[in-house]
Design a protein that fits this description.
Blueprint: H1 8-15, H2 21-53, H3 65-83, H4 90-98
Helix pairs in contact: 2-3, 2-4
């Protein structure tokens, strides 16, 4: 029985299409912009958490587990919307510094 040898390089090239360098760099920059925006959203969310801790308990609504979950969800969505577009500038500054490494 005559077996044909399989070259792993041909298998990899058949399963993973290669992009031209310009398109690959553009895709990397798009990914980097998305990651820096996500980091900015996480940073803003942590800032909101720290700000909420400064508010004393009490008031009209009693604080329990459900209100904490609701507040965390609202803070997360506010952080995401605040980081969309230009945001507070942290994500954009990170992007400008890191894009030179790509």
């Amino acid at each position: 029985m005559n077996l044909t040898p399989i070259d792993p390089r041909t298998m990899l090239s058949a399963t993973k299409p290669t992009l031209d360098p310009a398109r690959q760099k553009e895709r990397s920059l798009d990914d980097l912009r998305q990651y820096t925006r996500e980091f900015e959203a996480i940073y803003i969310n942590e800032m909101f958490k720290a700000m909420r801790k400064t508010i004393p308990d009490g008031g009209l609504i009693e604080k329990n587990m459900s209100t904490e979950i609701y507040e965390e969800a609202i803070d997360l969505e506010l952080a995401r919307s605040a980081s969309a577009g230009r945001g507070i500038g942290l994500g954009e500054a990170m992007f400008e510094q890191l894009r030179q490494l790509i």
